[in-house]
Write a structure and sequence with these properties.
The complex is a heterodimer of chains A (226) and B (77). Chain A has 226 residues and is an alpha/beta fold. Chain A has helices spanning 7-22, 38-49, 66-73, 91-98, 142-145, 147-151, 171-181, 198-206, and strands at 3-4, 26-32, 55-61, 77-82, 108-112, 129-135, 155-159, 187-189. The chains are: A alpha/beta (226), B alpha+beta (77). Strand 1 (3-4) of chain A pairs antiparallel with strand 3 of chain B, so a sheet runs across the interface.
Chain lengths: 226, 77
Amino acid sequence: MHERILAGNDRVARHNREHFHDHNVIAVNLMGSPGAGKTAILEATARALGPEANLGVLAGDLATDNDARRIRAAGIVAESITTGSACHLDAEMVHRGLHQLPWRSLDFLFIENVGNLVCPAVYDLGQHVNVVALSITEGEDKPLKYPLMFRKADMVLITKMDLLPQLHVSLEDIERNLAAVMQTPRLLTVSSTTGAGIGEWIRWLRSIGQPRPLACAAPAGAGRVV
Amino acid sequence: MQAMFDQIGTVIVAQRARSVRRVRVRIGAQAGVEPALFRTAYDVFRVRTLCADAPLDIVHVDASDELVLDQLELEVA
């Protein structure tokens, strides 16, 4: 039969992507480990880009709506997707979450995925781009330990750069490890606290174009052995 | 795992099968799925289903991100 096990998710992701395309909404899947600074990046993005563009956020979390409340306090619309025991978002969760937002009027929809460097990389949500937040405090070897996450990334944000002087961490080693796993290494160093690098991040967001081509699932066969 | 069992259920209905004899999946090294954990999850999910007696064969695929339900052997009436 040879059918992708996540073919059902891929169909919903394709549906989401068509929605985004039809309404000129750029969808950004923001991933990273717990505490990587994803919500802080969105708060900084709201301050920098919010006055000029309509932004919205779907924030995934196992429990609580703390992230969505923080983002709303920064002045942009945000809703939570509480996943319970699920360690990632899938396309259906995002589709249901869209009903909670005025998403058609957005210029950018940020999907803050559940803090996790493994499972979120496996699920297509219908996004235009994958962005991974990697805090400088996480050390140099995360790209090598979690290669799939970084291989799927269109952009890596090295966050909390204001803390670098306090740490024994080599930015050059992080860059080299990213280059070892990413087909087209692309990273920005940022600090949500000082605002350093946020301008470059906003410029990159503005440069995002149309969605990538849709993946096609192999058709299922028939017969006794399928 | 739930997605795979949904697919198997669809095939069982379409083929009017009584049970599943064997399941084969292909897992790429870059799929983000650990084969050993996949097998553990399968053993949990198959309890009291039509796959209860169906062994799982995992085909490991290098340099690929595929995660595919590759073949089912069915017991039909």
